[in-house]
Each structure stands twice: as C-alpha cells, then as structure tokens.
Design goal:
With about 325 residues, this protein is α/β, with parallel strands linked by helices. The protein has 13 helices and 13 strands.
Length: about 325
C-alpha cells in the first residue's frame, strides 16, 4: 500500500490520525527494541555490509546495493548479495537464477540485483549468508535487514531519502519510522543521504540528530544508455514506494508524460491491469515506461513492449566509505 500522507507532514506536526495511533507506535518501537537487544548476532568469516534505513518503504537502498556490488566487483572481490526476498514465496536459502526464477518466487529486488552479482534469498539471513560464503563470497552486501539482529554487520549504511527525511518523526503506524531516529542512528556507521542539494540542506537542518554519524551525499542519475528520452510521449507507471520521484525524473529527462499510474509498492501486475494500461497508452499514442524494479515483475511477453528507465547512484565522495572498506581489507583485491 502507498503510505498515508500524514506520515510525511513536517517534523513534529502531528495530525489527529498520528496522535490516535501513537499508542500503537510505542508498542511497535518497544517490540523492535526487544528484538534487536534480545539476540546475539552470528558473525560470518567474511565482512558483511548492511544497507538499511530507518523508514518503511523506499529510501534508495536498491541503487545503493547495486553501487556497492559494482564497486566491490571492480576491486576484484567475489561479492554476493543476500536478501529476504520481499514479495517472493521461496523460503531459501536459494541462489537467484533470473532464467529460472520469477519475482513471485524470489522478489523483484533480488532479480534486479542478480544482474550485477550472485544473490541469495532467504528468510533466515544467517543461512543465506553461510550459503554465500560456501559459494565463494569474500564479502557480502545485505539488502535491508538493519533491524534484523540475527547476522553480525561489520558496516551498516543507513540510507535516507533527503526529500522526505524521517517524515513526521514518529514510529509506525503513526509515522514512517521502523524505530526511533536516535536509537537507529546509534547502531549505524555511515549515513548516506540521497537527493538534490536543496533537499540535502533541508534534511540536515531539520534533523540535527543526523550529525551523530559521518555522512556522505549522493544522487540518483539516469543511466546513460543512448536512449533519447527527450520528446518521448510516455505513459509512465510504477509500483514503488515513491512513484512520484520516478515520474519527476523521467520528466526531467525531457519526456512528455501524457499519463501516469501509481500502484502499491511491489504491486503484482495481472493481465487485466496490463491490458488496460496498454490500451490506454495506445489510445494516447504513448510508450509505456516503468522502473527497472517494476520491469522485472512484468511477464516476459509484455516486458518487451515496455521501456525501463534505469537510474544509478552517484556518490559525491567515496572517501568516508573507502576508509571503512579498507579497515576490512576491501580495497583492491
């Protein structure tokens, strides 16, 4: 489901809904704290880098994982990713095979990540990590799982979308947080703030608590692939946490958005929905365009008629992260 608008009201601007839900937020926060504190994490024989966030929904974790997989691979490391496989039915641990697995089996994010490195899906993160090590991994990047205490994390990157920050500052269901900001940041090693310069400045002004962690800034940029987006009549659709970001990025590249459709995060597109949007796009003389993560959930017969709009993370400086990677022998292999 798309998050309610009151989650992203200005900080400490609490609506009636958020006030009424506050008791449930206290229960949620307490349960999360007990879970984190109540389990001794298992340490693997290779470094584990966790890419997580403090909010429910997207913050830019998947592009961050892709950037790490590409960087560590370029340095000569046998890097594997592990994921819970949200939206998939397999318990795992299982190595993702894009030729054999579909999103309803392993989840959309693992299918996308498998284009860049071996990926293991498993409800049990320790078992998935051990399977990766047995398969030759010398470093593991964990997609999400910052609030999961089972596996020891050598480096924890906390990713935040500067455009929305930590929302109204309350824990779900009164706000978008998985846990309170202060306690979450206390367990992190590095804060990765994604967004434009104005959003970044506003985030740091609104959330001085973020100074508790060294921070690096980054932005999402369309992948240069020779595609002429300028002037393209586009019918854009997406089932991600913030589809409006995708629509804005496509428009910024010069595409003419004649229609947009926003679906729930990780939405499964059935044949009826796909037939309808294809018919609407044809009537408007437009091409269907979606995100890479949505594209992997489409049936192959339909996917070939849809343009995917790929974005990649651009870190403005690798220096703070490089220092942490070097500490674990993750420079050039």
């Amino acid at each position: 489901m798309q998050p309610p608008a009151f989650w992203f009201a200005p900080r400490n601007h609490f609506t009636l809904a958020s006030r009424m839900l506050a008791p449930l937020s206290w229960i949620w926060a307490s349960a999360t704290r007990r879970r984190i504190e109540g389990e001794a994490p298992v340490k693997l024989s290779v470094p584990v880098i966790c890419v997580g966030n403090l909010t429910l929904g997207g913050a830019g974790k998947t592009p961050t994982v892709i950037a790490l997989l590409q960087e560590l691979s370029a340095r000569g490391h046998n890097v594997h990713a592990i994921s819970r496989g949200h939206g998939g039915s397999l318990q795992g641990p299982v190595r993702v095979d894009p030729e054999r697995h579909s999103a309803d089996k392993v989840g959309d994010e693992p299918l996308l990540l498998a284009m860049f490195a071996p990926v293991w899906v498993g409800r049990d993160r320790v078992a998935a990590g051990r399977a990766a090590v047995a398969d030759g991994a010398d470093v593991i990047v964990m997609d999400d799982g910052f609030q999961n205490p089972a596996l020891h994390k050598d480096i924890s990157l906390v990713v935040v979308d500067a455009g929305v920050g930590f929302g109204n500052g309350r824990v779900a269901p009164a706000g978008p947080l998985r846990e309170p900001v202060v306690s979450g940041l206390a367990r992190g090693d590095l804060l990765l703030v994604i967004g434009g310069a104005d959003d970044q400045a506003r985030f740091h002004a609104d959330w001085p608590e973020a100074q508790a962690l060294p921070a690096i800034s980054a932005s999402l940029r369309p992948l240069e692939m020779g595609m002429a987006w300028h002037g393209l009549r586009a019918f854009a659709f997406a089932g991600i946490a913030r589809p409006e970001k995708f629509f804005a990025s496509l428009k910024a590249e010069g595409a003419e958005l004649v229609a947009t459709r926003a679906f729930d995060d990780h939405a499964q597109f059935d044949q009826r929905i796909l037939a309808r949007i294809q018919s609407e796009a044809n009537a408007l003389g437009a091409r269907l365009v979606t995100t890479e993560k949505d594209a992997v959930r489409l049936p192959p017969s339909f996917r070939r008629d849809v343009l995917a709009f790929p974005v990649r993370l651009k870190l403005h400086s690798w220096q703070p992260l490089n220092a942490m990677l070097d500490r674990y022998g993750l420079g050039n292999a």
